[in-house]
Amino acid sequence: MRHPPRLSLLVIGAAVALVGTAVAPVVTASGATPACTVEYSVTGQWDTGFQGAVKITNNMAALSGWSLGFDFPNGQKVTQGWNAKWSQSGTTVTAANESWNGPLASGASVSAGFLASWSGSNAVPTAFRLNGTTCNVDTQPTPTPTPTDPPPSGGGAPELHVSGNKLVDSAGATRRMLGVNRSGGEFMCVQGYGFFDGPVDDASVKAIADWKANTVRIPLNEECWLGLSNIKPEYAGANYIAAVKDLVAKVEAHGMTPLVELHWTHGQYTGNSAGCSDVHATCQKPMPDAQYTPSFWASVANTFKDDPAVAFDLFNEPYPDRATSTTTQAWTCWRDGGTCPGISYEVAGMQDLVDAVRGAGAKNLILAGGLAYSNDLSQWLTYRPSDPTGNLVAAYHVYNFNTCASESCWNATLAPVAAQVPLVAGEIGENTCSHSFTDTVMKWFDDRDLSYLGWTWNTWDCSSGPSLISNYDGTPTSYGMGLRDHLRALDGQGTRT
Question: Could you tell me which residue, 201 or 136, shows the higher pLDDT?
Fold first, then answer.
């Protein structure tokens, strides 16, 4: 939903441009093959943090486990990592294998990534040790393998994945995502007022479950998650992540699927249909930005990759079609990103974001919305990103004021998509303070066993929100009454064996 910011905005500071990739060299004295090689790169950098990657190649005898060590020269601190168990003591960083990527054959490689903080300088480490053997130099003896640990268990909500054009749980039962959006995490932090709009205690989450909802979509802000300097520290970085994780845990504790979604992003856009002129993440931008969004999704994926009950919605409402001159340009920008006509910043395409999630080792369900604020899926199948796990879902948004808001349009553009992949209407709503339109939407989706989530579980004015509730105890507005009564009538029909 392209809702306006509800509170005044204070912007502090400015972002630092992306720094080019730096790679540590391989040096040998005699021309012999090194026992191991490590390629270290800075893949993204901003004012107080950066994203790094290491590629380890083992040229010794096969290893059943590995541990990489190196020292930061300028006081950098690892805050999070993926594809390895990352830790740091003083300046020394250690990345040990996960249980699933421990074996490393002779000549084989493994890659891992991390997020870290920096200040002043961000020089590249100069020495790397694989199980005690110095890499990027002459051959060394075969080291002793490192033991591995079992992965932690996930949460209590159903673990959804794609099977054909349906969503199924771990038992193979067909599932539908039926529920609400819980707005606030996208704007409160960047405006300096908190984490969420209204309470997110157990009672307020239970009130959602009492509507017989089985899914809660949670909009997020990338600058708050990454802890950029324009965000108040108390609402940024680790504090923001902890608040999101706490809400996710509460949603799961009531048996509902948490759908975490990237709503507001960095990047200055002042073209057609611009929501704001600010470079910071204070409104809906036409596309994700290459500077921060892949790092955001790598971090989110790393945070929740051991909990397959959490689903990911890559980007709220893309609208590159408002900036570019042709439909082909818009869909190409949507999938591939890069330099897109009409958009001044470097764009991260949906393929980049799928790659960031999967590169972090997460196999969680992913949703990708189409053009025209996720209201146009006409070429979604043609341009859909490649997902090695096959766990990708088409996302759609519809309000009574959208272009594609009729059964004839749904039959023409949505039905072909739903015949091939699961289809989730991540936002449905209307600005009439009634529910006649959403009733029509729900019937069309019900008839095809598809999923939908009402916008929004917040106590705003129903015409500007639109808001489902007048109180966080679950008291519905006249608009929200339609969704509440319908979900309760469907009780038990979100799951089919």
Answer: 201
Q: Determine the Cα–Cα distance for residues 103 and 487; give it in Å rounded to an integer.
A: 48
**Higher-scoring residue by pLDDT: 64, 158:** 158
User: Among 372, 296, 293, which residue's Cα sits nearest to residue 337?
Assistant: 293
* CA-wise closest residue to 448 among 488, 396, 402, 484: 396
Residues 271, 275: Cα–Cα separation, whole Å: 9
**What b/e string do you get for 258-281 counting C-beta neighbours within 10 Å, with b at 16 or more?**
bbbbbbbbbbbbeeeebbbebbbb
| Cis peptide bond prior to 308, omega within 30° of 0 | no
What average pLDDT does the segment 25-42 reach? 72
CA 247 vs CA 201, 206, 218, 263: distances in Å: 8, 12, 9, 17
In 3D, which of 317, 322, 338, 320 has the Cα closest to residue 330? 320
* pLDDT in the model for residue 139: 55
Q: Measure the CA–CA gap between 353 and 375, rounded to whole angstroms.
A: 20
From the number of C-beta atoms within 10 Å of its C-beta (0-12, 13-18, 19+), residue 139 rates as middle
Angle between helices 293-304 and 350-359 (to 10 degrees): 40
Q: Say if residue 4 is exposed, middle or buried (CB neighbours under 10 Å; 0-12, 13-18, 19+).
A: exposed
Per cent of the chain over pLDDT 70 is 89
Return the structure tokens found at 257: 């699927």
Q: Pairing mode, if any, of strands 392-399 and 109-117?
A: unpaired
- Strands, E, within 24-72: which ranges? 36-45, 49-58, 67-71
Burial 17-49 (b: 16+ CB within 10 A, else e): ebeeeeebeeeeeeeeebbbbbbbbbbbbbbbb
pLDDT, position 137? 82
Which candidate, 476, 477, 421, 423, places its Cα nearest to that of 450?
A: 423
3-state secondary structure of 258: strand
255: left (phi over 0), alpha (psi -120 to 50) or beta: left
Confidence at 7, pLDDT banded by 50, 70, 90: very low
Residues 295 and 115: beta-carbon distance below 8 Å: yes
The rounded distance, in Å, linking the Cα atoms of 103 and 314 is 32
Do the beta carbons of residue 129 and residue 56 sit within 8 Å?
no
